[in-house]
TrEMBL record:
It comes from Methanotorris igneus (strain DSM 5666 / JCM 11834 / Kol 5). GO terms for molecular function: ATP binding; endonuclease activity; exonuclease activity; transferase activity. This is CRISPR system single-strand-specific deoxyribonuclease Cas10/Csm1 (subtype III-A). Pfam families: Cas10-Cmr2_palm2, Cmr2_hel_dom2, Csm1_B, HD. Keywords: Antiviral defense, ATP-binding, Coiled coil, Endonuclease, Exonuclease, Hydrolase, Nuclease, Nucleotide-binding, Transferase.
């Protein structure tokens, strides 16, 4: 990147750095920020901080020009001092400052009013600003703290103690200063990490309703400024007045780029090897790295930075770039190269649809009230309908190797030359090179501390890490960051994707760095030291030896982004997408490991997990995929069951209990020999059913669907989350106990008139379920009630299930009786007591 472009990107990134110190003792944040940066220049001897101080001191119009619109003499004098040293003309620097000022305005789309300011106001949760017509929610706020996923759960609160806020600002300011001071050279990638770590929960503005993170405002200002720099690259030697006029015209200066993978489900889940959870995980990780490889290639060729990546997750990414013919030409080249590479490697099963739209600064400022998302999504969807159109003339329908003997890869089923298959002894399978790479990666994933991305021709024998090839680079799985020695750095260059950490000093400065936040929890088998197998997960289950599978995602996500925010801006959308991603990638590991229990109220669970499981025993869970707004988890069935409700409970707290942002889920319990692809399909169908029936719901187990049209709307097979929680407490928790000696769950004993007791029988539970099915087959009949009364009376269980015997006449026409819902609870309990 050219020097002026780099200075502009950094200027945008640090222009509001003074806001942290301002909120400790007051004052003008632009002057405080300039002083902060000049002090760093003196302490570190890094001269760039001197020029960057100007971007803090002069990023408001009133500080730059007088009443006549002329550049102030004070600014001219300060520019003269630094421009020559950096071999930048005074005009270029004045115009650069103005460009960052305009980028600042576009980024936030609103200005602070002095009457509404309170420098101690905390950051309002962006989630409590969402409204899609599902009910209002009161504003809630975050305490000031660094972003660390192992710390306290960031549940927004109604009130934050003002005294504590000042103390926290002092800590944040000192931490930022200390980390910047340790840098040996200015590095955009490392400054981005420092700011994300410390400024995520700092408000960009100090009005009561500010919901934009200062980090997101800074990175989006930097992204916009750099895109504008490339668009106006040839205009910087213009007279400032002429440059300002040109800068302020409403031309299509930006590209909003989106890409979305097709074929992900089949790629991840359609495998036919037994006990291959580690391979499943490797495929999921590979898709993530594949997406990052393409993202990094785009920003490298277009001379952008990671700040320009608005979002990347779930097989989808969005990037802000300059609208120049050169940029569009490079994007077309990249799209074609990716298309060709994917077709060659996966024979058309995996495809990336990438499109872009041209937009003006005004349209970017408010995203056309959400309409930009619709336009961009429509173009991407249209591209998906023209798969591989870019290389149609290069695709040969004739197999030129047709006369050579071929054999099928035992995993992906790709036909390859027989001699190219490799043998995996412990599974007795023959696999293609790609599957062999993934197999090796799967073995190492639990120990991996990060990935090293490197480009160009490299002799892999020099690097003793498992590798995986992508279209533009190779990723190496790093098991020990200490292994990157000085000798190693002097030989290679690349980017370190640092897993779940913001510790920039764990990686030598010769390498670029990127925080790679990923939910990668997996139970490790003691005997093999590898990811646990399906059969072991089933073996460790309570009662029935089954695998549990969970799929869940956020409801109405497209509507939330398009219409959920009243005042849409680049910074606000960046904050929303990033905070959503953090829940699924950053906090999920901690939730699985039992953290944040103080934030979880009663959830449906089999208490045996709390009473019999040692505190140090790790959860029998494997995260196959989690990111963006959805997840796919497998594990021992009872642990998956409980985890589902914990995730929902914490998600509800995470979004400030806003009814406009909800989660739906599909759960299934399967034999460990059941085909993985079918597990994925069944739980996907259940998730879709929960959404079709109103969202904010969960569907678990098969239930009889009513065949009466007039009852279909009210008699749903999925459950509202809170409704199921109430049913569990009412019917499940009152009829089982824990046998600590046998480490089993048993049904309770029923007290009889003679003082003796007999155990509640499984056969009675089945009779209740049969009565439910009888009702479901014909809700108009009450025959089920007579049968149920007979069996409950015979077993002496009328008191426990008394509400099931009550027929509510007001519900007789079309609303379900209590009996209709009880099977979803009792069937789960039967799983728990099965021997």
């Amino acid at each position: 990147m050219e020097k002026l472009g780099e200075i502009i990107a950094l200027g945008g990134l640090l222009h509001d750095i003074g806001k942290v110190a301002q909120r400790i003792s007051g004052g003008k944040h632009s002057s405080i920020g300039a002083e902060f940066l000049r002090d760093l220049a003196n302490k570190t001897k890094i001269k760039e901080y001197e020029i960057l101080a100007l971007f803090s001191e002069f990023h408001h119009k009133g500080d730059m020009v007088n009443e006549k619109g002329e550049i102030k003499e004070e600014l001219k004098e300060k520019i003269k001092k630094v421009a020559e040293e950096f071999k930048i003309s005074e005009r270029e620097l004045i115009n650069a400052l103005w460009l960052v000022y305009e980028s600042d305005n576009i980024s936030s789309s609103e200005r602070e009013e002095a009457s509404k300011l309170n420098i101690r106001n905390p950051l309002k949760s962006i989630f409590t600003s969402i409204d899609i017509g599902k009910g209002s929610v009161e504003s809630k706020y975050y305490p000031l703290m660094p972003l660390e996923f192992k710390r306290e759960f960031p549940s927004p609160q109604k009130n934050i103690e003002e005294k504590k806020i000042k103390e926290d600002y002092i800590d944040l300011k000192n931490n930022i200063y200390d980390d910047l001071k340790k840098l040996k050279k200015i590095s955009i990638d490392r400054i981005l990490v420092i700011l994300e770590h410390y400024l995520t929960f700092v408000p960009a503005m100090t009005s009561k309703e500010n919901d934009i993170s200062l980090y997101d405002h800074l990175r989006m200002t930097s992204a916009i400024a750099l895109a504008l720099y490339h668009y106006h690259k040839n205009d910087f030697n213009m007279d400032p007045k002429d440059f300002i006029n040109k800068l302020n015209n409403d031309e299509m200066k930006f590209l909003l780029i989106e890409a979305d993978f097709s074929g992900i489900q089949d790629f991840i889940y359609t495998i036919n090897i037994r006990g291959a959870l580690k391979y499943l995980r490797a495929r999921s990780t590979y898709l993530d790295l594949l997406s990052w490889d393409i993202v990094m290639e785009i920003i490298e060729r277009l001379n952008l930075t990671r700040a320009n990546v608005i979002y990347n997750g779930g097989g989808n990414f969005i990037i802000l770039a300059q609208n120049t013919e050169e940029a569009k030409s490079k994007l077309k080249e990249i799209r074609k190269e990716v298309c060709k590479w994917l077709y060659d490697k996966f024979e058309g099963s995996l495809y990336l649809a990438m499109e872009w739209i041209e937009i003006t600064p005004k349209e970017l400022k408010d995203f056309k009230n959400g309409e930009l998302w619709k336009e961009l999504k429509a173009k991407v969807d249209e591209r998906k309908n023209k798969r591989f159109v870019d290389i149609i003339n290069e695709i040969s329908l004739i197999d030129r190797d047709g006369f050579e003997k071929k054999k099928e890869c035992d995993v992906c089923k790709k036909q390859v030359k027989e001699g190219e298959l490799e043998y995996i002894e412990d599974k007795d399978i023959h696999v293609c090179k790609m599957c062999k790479y993934l197999w090796n990666l799967g073995d190492r994933l639990p120990k991996v501390q990060g990935f090293l991305r490197m480009k160009g021709k490299i002799d892999d024998t020099d690097i003793k890490y498992p590798s995986i090839k992508c279209p533009f680079s190779t990723f190496y799985a790093i098991e020990s960051l200490e292994s990157i020695t000085n000798k190693f750095i002097n030989k290679f260059r690349g980017i370190v994707f640092l897993k779940n950490s913001f510790d920039i000093f764990a990686v030598p400065e010769n390498f670029e760095i990127l925080p790679y936040i990923v939910a990668d929890y997996a139970k490790i088998a003691d005997e093999t030291k590898h990811i646990i197998s399906f059969d072991k997960l089933a073996e460790y289950s309570i009662g029935a030896k089954k695998i549990g599978v969970l799929r869940a995602d956020v409801d109405n996500l497209g509507l939330i982004f398009a219409k959920g925010l009243k005042n849409t801006s680049p910074s606000r959308l960046a904050t929303l997408s990033r905070f959503l991603d953090y829940f699924f990638k950053g906090y999920l590991n901690q939730i699985i490991q039992g953290k944040f229990q103080n934030a979880i109220e009663d959830v449906p669970m089999l208490r045996v997990e709390e009473e019999l499981k040692p505190n140090n025993e790790k959860a029998n869970i494997v995260v196959v995929y989690a990111g963006g707004d959805d997840l796919f988890i497998v594990g021992s069935w009872n642990e998956v069951f409980t985890l589902t409700f914990k995730i929902r409970e914490l998600f509800k707290k995470y979004v400030g209990e806003n009814p406009n942002i909800t989660l739906s889920a599909g759960i299934g319990f399967f034999d460990e020999k059941y085909p993985l692809a079918r597990m994925a399909e069944v739980t996907k169908e259940r998730l879709e059913k929960a959404k079709d029936e109103g969202k904010n719901r969960v569907m678990l187990l098969e239930r009889f669907e009513i065949d009466f049209p007039e009852f279909a709307e009210t008699h749903k097979v999925s459950y509202g989350w809170d409704h199921y929680k109430d049913l569990w407490k009412k019917y499940a928790e009152s009829i089982y106990k824990i046998n600590k000696e046998k480490k089993e769950i048993e049904l309770i004993e029923l007290k009889e008139t003679n003082g003796k007791g007999k155990k509640l029988s499984k056969s009675l539970i089945w009779k209740i379920i049969q009565a439910q099915e009888l009702y479901a087959r014909n809700p108009k009949s009450i025959r089920w009630a007579y049968i149920l009364a007979y069996y409950l009376g015979r077993h002496g269980a009328e008191k426990i299930f008394k509400d099931l015997l009550t027929i509510d006449i007001s519900k007789a026409r079309n609303k379900p009786q209590e009996i209709y819902f009880v099977d979803g609870v009792l069937k789960v309990l039967l799983f728990a007591i099965r021997r």
